[in-house]
Specification:
The chain is of the alpha+beta class. It contains 8 helices and 8 strands, in the order ααβββαββββαβαααα.
Length: about 230
């Protein structure tokens, strides 16, 4: 009898252990499938699809200008994060900039892009390729000069200012920045110069005159003024 007990007991224990392990596996399998199915069919999948459609539909140009590592001193040490500066535009006279902070770089870029989209401004363009007139902008220690240019000149600008004009849709412009190389101040000074831009059409409406009347001054004939007025586009 002792031999039979010693032989049967391990077999029963093994069979019980196998049954319990199989049951646990089935439980884990059901739970894992259920959780994985929720993740696949849940909010994450819809967000990814929605984001892809938005990029295809709106046609907004997004340019990352600067990434900076920042830190916040809290109780117990420092908390590190990232700050992103982004410029967005539609390439047809609208442009904006924004900055955002987060613990991770992608999240900081997302915040900056959302902020830039909310603060886009309209800038009138001459023939859809350059500015109507020269201008100056200033913010803090930054000073910038923007000048209209003939066709074929290209974008004579560097760093953050180039990103602004490429997003704006300007093809010919000459710029100069003096006083600072801080990208935040350079972009704010550039936007200060762009907000001062006007077009003959807006000036004529404000003064209650025709565009041809404004362009006819300075020795130009009436026919030339009419032709120039017809060629002007916002």
């Amino acid at each position: 009898m002792a031999d039979e007990n010693t032989i049967e007991t391990p077999e029963v224990a093994v069979e019980a252990g196998d049954a319990g392990e199989n049951q646990n596996r089935r439980g884990r399998g059901r739970g894992g499938n259920r959780e994985g199915g929720d993740r696949g069919r849940g909010r994450g999948g819809r967000d990814n699809n929605r984001g892809g459609k938005q990029e295809e539909d709106d046609g907004i140009i997004e340019k990352l200008v600067h990434i900076n590592r920042v830190s916040k001193t809290v109780k117990g040490g420092k908390r590190f994060g990232f700050a992103a500066l982004v410029v967005v535009g539609d390439g047809q006279g609208r442009v904006g900039f924004g900055h955002g902070k987060a613990r991770e770089v992608p999240e900081a870029i997302t915040k900056a892009t959302a902020s830039a989209r909310k603060k886009m401004i309209r800038v009138p363009l001459k023939e859809g390729r350059t500015l109507h007139h020269d201008g100056n902008g200033r913010f803090g220690a930054g000073k910038v000069t923007v000048r209209t240019a003939p066709a074929g000149t290209g974008i004579i600008a560097g760093g953050p200012m180039r990103a602004v004009f490429e997003s704006l849709g300007v093809a010919d412009v000459v710029t100069k920045s003096v006083g600072t190389s801080n990208p935040y101040n350079m972009i704010r000074a550039t936007f200060d110069a762009l907000t001062e831009q006007t077009s003959p059409k807006s000036v004529a409406q404000r003064r209650g005159k025709k565009v041809a009347d404004l362009l006819g001054r300075g020795g130009a004939s009436a026919a030339e003024a009419e032709a120039d007025a017809a060629a002007i586009a916002e």
